[in-house]
Amino acid sequence: MRLIARIGEGAILRVRRVCLLAAVIWSVLFMAIRPRFWTRPVRNVLARQILFTGIEATSFMTLAACMVGIAVVVQVQFWLMKAGQSELLGPLLAAIVIREVAPLLANFIVIGRSGSAISTELGNMKVDNEVRILDAQGLDPFHYLVVPRVLGVAGSVFCLAVLFVVVSLTVGFLCGFLAGGNTGIPSVFIESMIWAIQPGDVINFLVKTVLSGLLTGAICCIEGLSVGAAITEVPQATTRALVRSVGALLIVSAVVSVFTYL
Asked: Domain residue spans in the chain?
């Protein structure tokens, strides 16, 4: 009976966490569509979050896209040309790069760079009673701290994933061309990629980037604000935020991929 009780307690706790996460995301989206919530302080926090999460990560994302373009795109071109199946180049690259690799790498980079920073920053603010000070000054902590960070993370993940797709495909085509592969002219390559992208690929890409970004931002904010009065709780909250963000990303990616291929 104790084992059953522990299993039930763990299941109830997980359900509560999922409900809290869904409530936070719903509240963020509800506030985002109401213009009166977009005061100057909130806009400034959103701009700084996009700067740190998106713009400052472009160099590393570009480097990762170049490596994937050389390692994956060139290999796909080479083996398809060798097998005489060059017409499969567009669909195969769309399945590998657009559906799977770009959303996953963009989310992993954002989780590693910004997820830990958000949870640590909010945790320190909670320990230093800065959250109470904001509330005493008439600023809603959820409105000022959570909403711009969650939206900034989601928008940055989407933009970084788009950058990854463009750079990896471009670098892959150029490397294949310089290596002497029969890659054809750029217009044919671009046309094959455009025709290979189906509506399901677009939905897959949007869900894996925007929804996963919302989950990452919400999880990191929740864990950061859950810190108590002890400074030693901050690294523990950061670790939980990273682990749960990666877990949510993998679950969303797996579920979306299954529905995409059905």
From this structure: 39-261
Asked if 248 and 215 count as a contact pair (C-beta separation under 8 A), the reply is yes
Task: Give tens-digit pLDDT for 40-92.
Answer: 888 999 999 999 999 999 999 999 988 888 887 777 777 666 666 666 666 77
CA–CA separation, 44 and 62 (whole Å):
26
Contact between 193 and 94 under an 8 Å Cβ cutoff? The reply is: yes
Q: Report the candidate in 204, 218, 217, 214 with the shortest Cα–Cα distance to residue 256.
A: 204
User: What backbone torsions phi and psi does residue 194 show, to the nearest 5 degrees?
Assistant: -65, -45
Query: At CA 57, angle to CA 200 and CA 247, rounded to 5?
Result: 55
| Nearest Cα to Cα of residue 149 among 244, 66, 44 | 44
Give every CB contact of residue 235 below 8 A, 6+ residues apart in sequence.
120
CA distance 90 to 190: 9
Amino acid letter, 98: I
Rg (CA), the chain: 21
CA–CA separation, 156 and 61 (whole Å): 11
pTM of the model: 0.89
